[in-house]
Automatic annotation (TrEMBL):
The keyword Calcium applies. Residues 219-387 form the TLDc domain. It holds the Pfam family TLD. SUPFAM superfamilies: EF-hand. This is TLDc domain-containing protein. The keyword Transcription regulation does not apply. Keywords: Calcium.
Length: 424
């Protein structure tokens, strides 16, 4: 199949060890792939050229060049052998968590100097966004490339400092911490030797269906934000998200918010922009329904979108994930919606007036204060419904506030406060 004459001998212990990670069928498929790419490289079946490798795996720029360098074990001969391919995939896809993350850490060092600096990370992120976001994509626009890269860079720490005035660098511990709060980046970088089809992990961006009456420039949820949030979600929740509520259209109204969400049974994404310009929110895995205490499950999480992208999943410290209190008269049960923490000290909380709230660091999600100050004053609030793949819904029906629909909303609101059946 063209590999018998490759520069590495089949007795290379790294190749022998890596081969054991694959079933025979997988090895046969790798042989077929190698033969196909080697023939395109016009190498008499001996090796794969850099251009053919990058074109097949959908890579380019400094990230593509660095990947080829790592896969060929830094030989600089521009020849990727069958043994190289097996060893790289054996480490990168079949290795331990530490081995895979070490590979990705080296991959981001696009300069190849052994130091992962801000410049390396910036170059890598620019290529990632160029690969994922296509100019022809419809829906809310991608912000400028510089802004998109910036929000992820702002979440990174560079704690190591070289001698003199050298650039601060990211340690391996810094890198692992960053991967935890930007799972979309980690998911994408961990799948680059998989076929570049639309379902490749880390490449999928939800299709965003918005109300035609709302100017897209008023939307908070941009493509890079949706991709960031989606990094913590399963593939079936990344197909389509539908706008259910936007304060510029529906007003800052808790009742309208709950009414608009009453017909959506799936998860929702709540996003807030406050008067300090910070954008953040939470993913609610359960519907927003009246409760007198915390409820929900461990799938919910909090996130920051601007000025930095970061995501905070449950730590297991407690189960105080969601809060939705409606028309309670006791001060011990604050009316509004929230995530995490404890009563009156939530990770994120919006009061029922929808004109104020708060955010504190909380152990539920291991999250910090999401804004500049603990007290927040919302400027824009929007909520998206996650359309789970296979759900029996009309995906292209954007609900309009007709008389009948408003009646239905009112009935649902009465039901929440226990009055719907009082006269029946």
């Amino acid at each position: 199949m063209g590999n018998s004459q490759s520069s590495s001998t089949p007795t290379d212990p790294r190749f022998v060890s890596a081969s054991r990670s694959f079933a025979q069928k997988e090895l046969d498929e790798l042989r077929s792939l190698f033969a196909s790419l080697a023939s395109q490289s016009q190498s008499n079946g001996k090796y794969i050229s850099p251009s053919v490798f990058q074109a097949y795996f959908g890579l380019h720029g400094p990230l593509g060049e660095r990947m080829f360098d790592l896969v060929t074990r830094k030989r600089k001969d521009h020849q990727l052998t069958f043994e190289d391919l097996v060893i790289a995939k054996g480490t990168y896809e079949k290795g331990t968590k530490d081995e895979i993350e070490e590979f990705v850490y080296q991959l981001l060092d696009v300069s190849g100097d052994g130091l992962l600096g801000r410049t390396d990370l910036e170059s890598s992120l620019a290529v990632i966004f160029e690969i994922i976001f296509k100019p022809s994509d419809c829906g809310p626009k991608l912000g400028s490339l510089q802004d998109a890269v910036g929000i992820f860079l702002n979440a990174a720490k560079f704690s190591e400092h070289g001698e003199g005035n050298g650039e601060a660098t990211m340690s391996f511990a810094d890198f692992r911490s960053w991967c935890t709060i930007v799972p979309s980046v980690r998911k994408f970088l961990g799948s680059l030797l998989m076929p570049p089809d639309p379902g490749r992990p880390g490449s999928q961006v939800p299709h965003l269906l918005q109300l035609e009456s709302i100017d897209s420039n008023l939307m908070l949820l941009r493509k890079e934000y949706a991709w960031h949030i989606g990094g913590a979600l399963p593939q079936q929740e990344l197909e389509e998200w539908k706008l259910l509520y936007h304060s510029s259209c529906h007003g800052l109204s808790f009742n309208t918010f709950l009414g608009n969400l009453s017909n959506h049974e799936g998860p929702t994404v709540l996003i807030i922009k406050d008067k300090d310009g910070c954008i953040y929110g939470g993913y609610a895995s359960q519907p927003w329904e009246r409760h007198g205490d915390f409820y929900g499950d461990m799938k919910s999480f909090l996130f920051k979108l601007y000025p930095e992208a970061s995501l905070f999943r449950p730590t297991g410290a407690n189960h105080n994930t969601q809060w939705c209190a409606v028309n309670f008269s006791s001060e011990s049960i604050p009316n509004g919606v929230g995530f995490g923490g404890r009563v009156h000290h939530f990770g994120l909380f919006l009061s029922a007036s929808f004109d104020q709230g708060h955010t504190f660091s909380c152990t539920t999600f291991g999250s910090p204060c999401l804004s500049k100050t603990n007290r927040i004053h919302p400027e824009v609030i929007e909520c998206w419904g996650v359309v789970t793949k296979g759900a029996d819904q009309d995906k292209h029906d954007v609900v309009k506030a007709t008389v009948l629909e408003r009646f239905k909303e009112d009935r649902n609101m009465l039901k929440m406060v226990g009055l719907a059946n009082s006269s029946e």
